[in-house]
Write a structure and sequence with these properties.
amino-acid biosynthesis, Rossmann fold, six-stranded mixed sheet, quinate 3-dehydrogenase (NAD+) activity, Shikm_DH/Glu-tRNA_Rdtase, aromatic amino acid biosynthesis, EC 1.1.1.25, about 20% strand, 2 domains
Length: about 300
């Protein structure tokens, strides 16, 4: 049987998610299950923070003694300006998805990329060395993924984005420290490069609930044998991935990355090993992928 939710008291530590939108997020289900499983007296909630309000949100976190936070769309890059410090990985990437309140100092980390690569390798068995990767999107999540893929030894990273300036910015930052070939592209060129890519990764919100009929690019060039990956985890299999599966591609959804980035955040916050299996079960139950056999509300 799962652990019952403990009573919130004066010693309960508070954590949260900031982003816009956040109503779709399964982070509260996952993190509250992790705290219960590990016996940590803590609670986690999602907070919708509009663009331009990040400074105020973090001032509130600091004043109220929040112990930590996750950061999601669209704040992963902008939040850096309002932190007291960031670790080397997050500084190199230029994006933060995890914040630790260290005695009043807000310190930023990035667990997106390492969570993504761990999930991709476990679920597909791919050896990334020398691979040609097409990355669709150039936001905060794309930054984490791009740098992690470069660290794995991929041969080429093409970055295609609707706003060309953001693709150029990410490509420039990546090229300064990566050994692989890096090229920024207009989104209109992405379909053509699908024919050359070994791995295609959607790092945009296209296809995320409630916009489930969207795809990041046209699906015409998807082909057998390539790996098609999507960071979107709600729904667990997007229209993009269904098209890829129908084309004979190897598909990789976003649930695993979501769980692992959260697991690394949990470990930064608590210093304890993350209860990964329980976290995954909570996410899958909240998405309707399994019965909630333990009686824990999502």
């Amino acid at each position: 049987m799962g652990r019952k939710m403990r009573e919130i008291d004066a010693k309960t530590e508070v954590y949260g998610l900031i982003g816009d939108p956040v109503a779709h997020s399964r982070s509260p289900a996952m993190m509250n299950k992790a705290f219960r499983e590990a016996g940590v007296n803590a609670v986690y909630a999602a907070f919708r923070v509009a663009k331009g309000m990040v400074r105020d949100a973090l001032a509130g976190f600091r004043a109220l003694g929040f112990r930590g936070a996750n950061v999601t769309i669209p704040h992963k890059v902008d939040v850096l300006a309002f932190l007291d410090d960031v670790d080397d990985r997050a500084r190199r990437i230029g994006a933060v998805n995890t914040i630790v309140n260290d005695g009043g100092r807000l310190v930023g980390y990035n667990t997106d990329g390492i969570g993504y690569v761990r999930s991709l390798k476990e679920e597909t068995g791919v050896d990334l060395r020398g691979k040609r990767v097409l990355l669709i999107g150039a936001g905060g999540a794309a930054r984490g993924v791009a740098f992690a893929l470069a660290d794995e030894g991929v041969g080429t990273i093409w970055i295609a984005n609707r706003t060309a300036e953001r693709a150029v910015s990410l490509a420039g930052d990546l090229a300064r420290s990566a050994d692989c070939k890096v090229e920024a592209l207009d989104l209109s060129q992405a379909v053509r490069l699908c024919a050359e890519a070994d791995v295609v990764v959607n790092c945009t919100s296209a296809g995320m609930a409630p916009s489930v009929d969207e795809t990041p690019i046209a699906t015409d060039a998807l082909r057998p044998g390539m790996i098609v990956s999507d960071l979107v985890y709600n729904p667990p299999e997007t229209k993009w991935l269904r098209a890829a599966r129908a084309a004979g591609a190897v598909v990789h959804g976003g649930v695993g990355m979501f769980v692992y980035q959260g697991a690394y955040a949990f470990e930064y916050w608590t210093g304890l090993p993350a209860p990964v299996a329980a976290m995954r079960a909570a996410v899958e139950a909240s998405l309707g992928l399994r019965a909630d056999a333990e009686g824990d509300a999502p």
